[in-house]
Amino acid sequence: TEWVWMGGLRPGSDFLTSTLRVIQEIVGCRVRRDPPNSTERYTRWINQLTPEQLLTQVFTANGPTVIMPTWFCSRAWFSHVGPFDEGGQGVPEDLLFFYEHLRKGGGVIRVDQSLLLYRYHPWAATHSVLETTIWTHRVRFLEEQALPRWAAFTIWNAGKQGRRLYRSLTAASQRKVVAFCDVDENKIRKGFYCHEDSQERPKPRIPILHFRAARPPFVICVKLDLTGGAFEDNLRSLHLQEGQDFLHFS
């Protein structure tokens, strides 16, 4: 099998040996950051995902679950997925390729060795991609790949990010939202969220519940690793299965 190396990683024999059986996978690895304290949350996320989360956490704002400078795949698979979008500055070409790879049934594998020094600087090309552009692609991918298998779902976060997701959904997906949930008593006391910009009459009024009173599945719009473990503890207390009962979106 002929292999395509798409990033900055210099392959070694041990690395290639572990990929010989791979046909439809993107293979990456763990990374070290330079400077070491840059993007600490992101670096922890990219290095600590479980094999299952490499596929269940593809909807988050962090992007591909193995970073593009470490990617390998077979040349045949690369040709099948298609070339990178060469639209120029402002196009998230790695995210678009990753999504197309997943649409076509591709898998994701991470070699659990740190084989790349991933340098951070504020002039990197990634900063030229607008957050709104990435948001639009993420919402459409969520609606295409995840929401069709659920007849109804709850948005976890009645705040800014949860409401933004709801407003970004198509009308058909909005009708599947049965509730928002939260831990903030002030939001819960309001009782509902009214989508004022809706063209429907009467305007939709979505209940706001405490997370323990809400029913899965959940689309979670709470960022990970920001609450000292409080959010993660709440989620674990429900004994749910990621990918089936909930997905992370933020």
Can you walk through the features of this model?
By secondary structure, this protein is α/β, with parallel strands linked by helices. The chain folds into two domains: 25-131, no CATH class; 150-248, no CATH class. The protein is built from ten helices and ten strands. It has helices at 13-19, 40-48, 53-56, 75-81, 93-103, 131-145, 160-168, 171-174, 185-190, 230-236; strands spanning 3-5, 25-34, 72-74, 107-119, 153-156, 177-182, 192-194, 205-210, 218-220, 246-248. The strands form three sheets. It has a six-stranded mixed sheet with strand order 7-8-6-5-9-10. Strands 1-3 form a two-stranded antiparallel sheet. A two-stranded parallel sheet has the order 2-4. α10 links the parallel β9 (218-220) and β10 (246-248). It is globular. The protein starts with a strand and ends with a strand. The relative contact order is 0.14. The model is unreliable at 17-22 (pLDDT under 50). GO terms for molecular function: glycosyltransferase activity. It comes from Colobus angolensis palliatus (Peters' Angolan colobus). InterPro entries: Nucleotide-diphossugar_trans. This is UDP-GlcNAc:betaGal beta-1,3-N-acetylglucosaminyltransferase like 1.
Keywords:
10 helices, 6-stranded mixed β-sheet, alpha/beta, single chain, 2 domains, 250 residues, two-stranded antiparallel sheet, 22% strand
Query: What series of H and E elements makes up the topology?
Result: EHEHHEHHEHEHHEHEEEHE
Q: Compute the number of structural domains.
A: 2
Residue share in helix = 25-40%
Output the radius of gyration: 20 Å
Low-confidence segments, given as residue ranges, are 17-22
Mean pLDDT: 90
Molecular shape: globular
